[in-house]
Amino acid sequence: MHADRCDAVAAALGPSGSVVGIEISASSQEYAWNSETGGRFRKITLYPGKGWQQASALNMARRIVSTCRASGVSDVFLCNYDKPGIFLAGLMLRALGRRVYVMGCSKFDDLTRNVWREAMKRFFFLPYQGAIASGKRSRDYMRFMGIPERRIAAEYNTLSLDRILSMGGGVAAPDGTPFEERHFTIVARFIPKKNIATALEAYSQYRNTAAHPRPLHLCGSGPLENELRQKVEELQLGDSVVFRGFLQTDGIARVLATSLALILPSTEEQFGNVVIEAQAMGLPVILSDNCGARDNLVRSGVNGFVVEPDNPSGMAFFMKVLSDDEDIWRRFSKKALEFGKLGDTAQFASAALKLTGSVA
User: Fold this and answer.
1) Distance CA 89, CA 91 (A)
2) What is the helix (H) or strand (E) element at residue 158, kind and residue range?
3) Fewer CB within a 10 Å sphere, N or C end of the chain?
């Protein structure tokens, strides 16, 4: 995702500009993604092995700062503002005269907030002169953290729509796989906040009302996998639920290319980048109102449906609507493609250039 964004900024700047992407590590504690790079920017990995897991905050900050200085950059965009190493790097870069910006998609409704803790958190935003946020709720949160509204640009959560479409086979819905052969899809880690158990309850209700129920494909892995498999057995869903395992981006794109709709029922979701991937493939989305992606990308009754995360009956109703009515699905699909442009990396590049005052 960051590679897409760096490539987009490099393309927007043209031959006169230079973009360096600093990767802390080639591996992640949360995801098994392969490390990727683009073709227009230079990527530097600070900890090629697993040394980052033992690195102190000061060591990480020094590596970030020394890399920025050696690369000769004047504008630095940092994510993970809550990490001590990132905070120290921001302070050091500001002291060295660099312009430093924060990137993020946190919202007030991500979790139960404590007003005093949130007020103290503003301290972590002191290094930043501006921000790239995602959607209205994310911009509001940045303002509360002390970033002036005129210095907040959007959108942060973006992907290359062309890359996703190409990985998916180059044909987006409503073309491609015939309507009657498509299935529902969930792409998520198997952890509590993704709320997959509720989605399974919704799917069970949908199956009980549909004349020709479609399969549900689960793409992901995590600590709740055994529990979810037991849930499938309890609900007697049999082979209708297909566990696809963890897939890299190209595998996800191919699954979405044969899907009817994406389901994202999270109880907590800062954004939900998979919504962009789904819309790149022309898919309607059924998602919870907790998901940040719904701010800009989803309009209920236009290109998908927004539902409460504790409302499996509502999810089941919307699944049946899309499953049974091809005309509605096709109309939603075309609108999904239109709205998907708001999640393209061109939006991120525009935000970065706006903050830095650069001219493409």
Assistant:
1) 5
2) none
3) C
Tokens standing for 17? 């500009």
Q: Is 10 helix (H, G, I), strand (E, B) or coil?
A: helix
pLDDT single digits (tens) 26-60: 776 666 667 778 889 999 999 987 666 778 999 99
Domain boundaries, the chain: 2-158+344-356, 161-341
Q: What share of the chain is helix, strand, coil (3-state, %, to 5)?
A: 50, 15, 35
Tokens of 163: 């890359």
**pLDDT tens, position by position, 205-249:** 999 999 999 999 999 999 999 999 999 999 999 899 999 999 999
- pLDDT at 137 (0 to 100): 97
Rounded to whole angstroms, the Cα distance separating 156 from 344 reads 10
> What's domain 161-341's architecture?
3-Layer(aba) Sandwich (3.40)
SS3 289: coil
Return the closest-CA partner of residue 40 out of 23, 74, 17, 67.
Answer: 17
CATH of domain 2-158+344-356: 3.40.50.2000
pTM > 0.85:
yes
